[in-house]
Amino acid sequence: MGTGEIIMYLEKISTPADVKKLDTEQLVILAEEMRAALIQKLSKHGGHFGPNLGMVEATIALHYVFDSPKDKIVFDVSHQSYCHKMLTGRKDAFLHEEQYDDVSGYTNPAESKHDFFNVGHTSTSVSLASGLAKARDLSGESGNVIAVIGDGSLSGGEALEGLDFASELKSNFIIIVNDNNMSIAENHGGLYQNLKELRETNGTSPCNLFRAFGLDYRFVPDGNDISAMIAALQEVKDIDHPVVVHMVTQKGKGYALAEQYKENWHWCMPFDVETGKPTVSFEGEDYGTLTADFLLEKMKHDPKVVAVTAAVPTVMGFTEEKRKAAGKQFVDVGIAEEHAVAFSSGIAAAGSKPVFATYSSFIQRTFDQLSQDLCINKSPATVLIYTASVFGMSDITHLGIYDIPLISNIPDMVYLAPTCKEEYFAMLNWSIEQNQYPVAVRVPCNGVISDGEQAETDYSNLNKYQVKQQGSKTAILALGDFYQLGEETAKSIAEKTGIAPTLVNPRYITGLDEKLLTKLKENHSIVITLEDGILDGGFGEKIARFYGTSDVKVLNYGLKKEFLDRYNVEEVMYQNRLTPEQIADDVLQLSE
Amino acid sequence: MGTGEIIMYLEKISTPADVKKLDTEQLVILAEEMRAALIQKLSKHGGHFGPNLGMVEATIALHYVFDSPKDKIVFDVSHQSYCHKMLTGRKDAFLHEEQYDDVSGYTNPAESKHDFFNVGHTSTSVSLASGLAKARDLSGESGNVIAVIGDGSLSGGEALEGLDFASELKSNFIIIVNDNNMSIAENHGGLYQNLKELRETNGTSPCNLFRAFGLDYRFVPDGNDISAMIAALQEVKDIDHPVVVHMVTQKGKGYALAEQYKENWHWCMPFDVETGKPTVSFEGEDYGTLTADFLLEKMKHDPKVVAVTAAVPTVMGFTEEKRKAAGKQFVDVGIAEEHAVAFSSGIAAAGSKPVFATYSSFIQRTFDQLSQDLCINKSPATVLIYTASVFGMSDITHLGIYDIPLISNIPDMVYLAPTCKEEYFAMLNWSIEQNQYPVAVRVPCNGVISDGEQAETDYSNLNKYQVKQQGSKTAILALGDFYQLGEETAKSIAEKTGIAPTLVNPRYITGLDEKLLTKLKENHSIVITLEDGILDGGFGEKIARFYGTSDVKVLNYGLKKEFLDRYNVEEVMYQNRLTPEQIADDVLQLSE
User: Fold this and answer.
1) All domains of chain B in start order, with CATH
2) Is some CB atom of chain B closer than 8 A to the CB atom of A138?
3) Is A294 on the interface with B (CB under 8 A)?
């Protein structure tokens, strides 16, 4: 908050016990202060905007009624946990700009005993919390266990499995469904018709998804009404069986633009509070927008082309306007990655041309579908993997550096690693038009780089690497968006050793060009691999295995197998010896 | 069928068109013949028993009403597709013993144009079929698309995601829910209360899971009544929107023992038709039974120990009787692997001691939960991976050879590979009692082998390999249940080269014993790795990377990255050079 404003209550909240000291009128003022703090911080810092503005009153009510951490609150995705953080000893990270980065954007047990899990993926809260409840029952302890889950997260398989299981607990378990009638974009899926029916009947509709899962049910028409929320929660506190409290909140509440444009304000960059305009801007091209435009053009000429997303349409550039332009050729299945992959496999099996796109971190949610539904059936669908990179998202729960071991070790999958714009679109176009292979494409994440060259159009001759620069002694296999690092490394090696190395664009993550690799032995004694992901289970290790019995020395460069969190890219690159100079030094040392 | 029996109709069915020629009375006789053929074949061959006996009439009705393959039927799991196979040109594989193996146990596009997918995992049909429907709509084609899914499969996340999405299709899509009130074992989850309510109200209960997912709904009280099924399907044929046909069938119908003991007769070994007694028997110990007994003993002394299964309780030996003995310390979450892992993580995070067990093939369904819910949170849960081996199940959809790349490349996971009974139980016991690491244990699959030695009890000093035999020149790192292959290989190498090699039990799949590996360089020029799984992304490649810059030659042995199907183990071992003689030959050649 600006120093000129009066903070009557928030400044005094150190623990949830301090919330309990306030009366309803004071709690309403506290809510206003929290909302002002959120808008202030997020306008300068960026972050999840709409979800937190909607959760102010409910969070106050939760901490007023329950006794955290004895009573355990588990937030789904936990991008809506900012208010919870404010009330559990972390208010300063929302009040003072210099402390903004003291907290992560998600719940984090390292920050507070009031946080039980590091979470960031959707749809996990019910299952995780039901585990806490089970442990409580096994050890004969007491206390409430509460899962807080948004309506958008309900469509995810893990959440639905958890909801189905919950009734089996037969003991205290409270599921708060925060229904703001939105996912990141609009909701998709039949269950949202039922939520609408429940909202419109004040929770009295006899057809009730939660009751159909065997759960008790309560409805709170206005989850932004502190008194109503307190009353509702007091009623379920210490309940002896699982119950759903379905509360309706307003996403973005308290900031007019966010109330109106919910999708745009789900997450925000720093912005001007008066105008809502972003105060930072990105110039130039991005692969999302380029991809949407490319696909829209293809859709015009081919009714069989269809783009599929699991609730993240803009990762591939499909803004609301472009989704409308695509019409039936764009499908948002909601948060349901497993379904998205199997659905795409079905589409491809029947001869149409699906392109499913998601983040590297979220493709993790659908390994079995990639293997069983897609690859065993050799369905020629296309999967685009975004932010699969050290340059991607840096929160521990959203890292994009694990997809190579995940995807590339599935038999019959073709995983392509384009190195520039021309190659990316050539590969994408080939993948859409071919009907032999399941294909995944690792979208570059180091900016849109054009090499100005005409890329090859046919990638059906699998695992043929491309020699970009013929040299000797050392060969660099520079995969995907580490190709440019490979170019720099080649220069550095040439400078330091006086011998220009060979530079290769492997293009295929999923297989070896044994002919080329064998030929390299003739006049190369060192082979370097570079990949933008963890080394374990990755591309470089396959090369190391290939040369295992030869005299060629292999140096694998990539990232260490570890969970990073909010890291500095340059530091991580340096620690992993991923600078051209470090690599050239290693080559020099090995040559001596 | 025995040659003495009269087959009036089944012998004459070559295509579904032949089914349509029969009248109701004849169809009833056809059903009897099919049921007799099933009992006959399965009593000699083994296979999925109860599910197919229950589906005879419904399958006849499906092919009587619909026009396959223009109308497309997708079977969930497809272990209930035997009757479908009989009616689509594959009857001989059910009538003549010498042709029994002409068909697989699941749908298979390579066998017939009436099969659309290779499936074997549960809960995929709705998503796959909805893809077929979408492709039909995109290309302006017509025809019905039908998904057939059992009640047990409904609890899986992929199925629930698919059900939720289905209503968005807004065009022809028919979901047949085959409700026999059973999963493999009894059903678990709240939705089964709703199915019960629907059965008891003849489908009229206003609270209806399927309607809550936005779907139209019909109820057929007796799915084993051919006329009723025909009438119900005729009513939904060519429907212009998604609809669920909820039919009640009797699992195991027509074989009294299977009707009574549904769990035991879900799948059968060859048996005597008169007595129901198996005609083959296994002697000796198995890890399932041993594990259940071990856990039951621990449970007696520690109320915090809890075994968790996702609908496959007997994989870890928990028969109905042992489940009862465990009481609240055994939890079957139903077919819901994602939930099972997150639930276990929650239990462990709160200080109790969960042991989740499943098949290698099914752990694939929960990668993100292993990574995000379990490992990021460092929850000290135990996961047991069964049939993770070339010696495991051999159907393409149930292979157990992909778990090493899947599990071992997740940061902070400890994946252990015991080599014998003593080591397995020592590792399991350590894992249950420790509270630092998420631990998975790869249960040996080459029989219960006892080495008679006292195994170490503490595995918290991670990645410390065990030298079992000190030799020179060649070192063999023999992982898990390939340790015995390592022993034989050591002998063979000693014989052929005259130099006894070093034999190492690596124990840890997830990390390197760099100290030992460095020391091996001193008097070894060849290092061999053996692992019972695919090489890509596996253990051996990590060793190859480690030695990449040294003079040590590395030979990695394991399986090729490919989808095998109903293979002969010995052949596969030979093709992958996994016999002691072949390996010794390779060493000899490399030494020359």
Assistant:
1) 10-264 (3.40.50.970), 287-442 (3.40.50.970), 466-591 (3.40.50.920)
2) yes
3) no
